[in-house]
Amino acid sequence: MIKNIDYWDLDRFAQDIVNGKQLTDGNIRELLSLTEEEDIQKLHYVARKVRDHFFGNKVFLYSFVYFSTYCKNNCAFCYYNKCNDIQRYRLDMEEIRNICRALKNESIHMVDLTMGEDPYFHNDPDKFVDIVRTVKDEMELPIMISPGVMDDRTLSKLRENGADFLALYQETHDRELYQKLRVGQSFEERMHARQFAKNIGYCVEDGILTGVGNDIDSTIKSLRGMQKNKPDMVRVMTFVPQEGTPLEEVNQESSFSELKIISILRLMFPDRLIPASLDLEGIDGMVHRLNAGANVVTSIIPSDSSLEGVVNYDRELEERDRDPKSVVKRLRTMGMEPASQADFNRIIGKSTGKPVEMPVVAI
């Protein structure tokens, strides 16, 4: 599919994807098996051509507010699992407002409110509703919530009070691997929460991990599993072993597989949002992920922030370099620009509750 073809054929391949061509499992297997740098660059090239058809040079930026690092779960991969003996925090409303004020009037399209499955909020979800309402009033932007699995009633109430997007990663759609990663948690409940949210007007995000024992067959199962719920945003992240967790001794993979999967996601979900997270390798890593076909930058934080993140490669660094101005500056060196807020609002269907297609930019 990619090997031994010239760039004219790659352009035709990109056009085929734009015209609705679907990858077979055999196609995906071949792309996941690529090892030669030249072949992988061809894959990234096709992914960029497809992305640019739908989005041009525009990129969407999400700020990140990890407001509670408490969690009731014992995920084997997560630094914040309940058994890990670490310092934790739970921000109060004024601290959250201060973060919003620091981000206001920056080139941010959406605020991502993230927490572990903190019993403080899960047992009294109105406290979380208050945060969503406050941030919505403060920022006047779309709100993404990343609260773990919440019941139907709570998801409905959050939607009524300003939540636009639900991020709820399955991590894997391989059920055997899921039980090893999300210890003691229901595969079906997680799937149900995403589907219910989509049914009541949320945009939804699904995501997978790579480097956690997923072989090619397992990865294909996850990619196909993501397709079933027709998510509005899809992501992949490289597993980073975390101190104090059951998987801390696992050898960390490079981002090699993640970058290939980002490109494959672009071919499978050509007009959807695909993030490049700053949480793994900062702005330099952002560049590689955008070059693989991503069109969103996530985990943007204020310049002086000590907020935690999912991985926090820069937890001990004095200069974290994940603020909006630094991100936009690097984007412009790549010939890319933040999209308009109107473009983003059309994507998430802010006025209708349904996703709206972007204007097409010709290849």
Structure, described:
The chain has 363 residues and is α/β, with parallel strands linked by helices. The chain is 43% helix and 14% strand. The chain is built from 14 helices and nine strands. Strands 1, 2, 3, 4, 5, 6, 7, 8 and 9 form a nine-stranded parallel sheet that branches. Helix 1 packs across helix 3 and helix 4 (93-103) runs parallel beside helix 6 (126-139). It is globular and about 55 Å long. Residues 355-363 have low confidence and may be disordered.
Summarize this entry quickly.
With 363 residues, the protein is α/β, with parallel strands linked by helices. The chain is 43% helix and 14% strand.
Question: Which helices and strands appear, and what pairs or packs with what?
Answer:
Layout: H1 7-18, H2 25-32, H3 37-55, E1 58-68, H4 93-103, E2 110-115, H5 119-122, H6 126-139, E3 143-146, H7 152-160, E4 163-167, H8 175-181, H9 187-199, E5 203-210, H10 216-228, E6 233-238, H11 256-268, E7 275-277, H12 278-291, E8 296-300, H13 324-333, E9 337-338, H14 341-348
Helix pairs in contact: 1-3, 3-11, 4-6
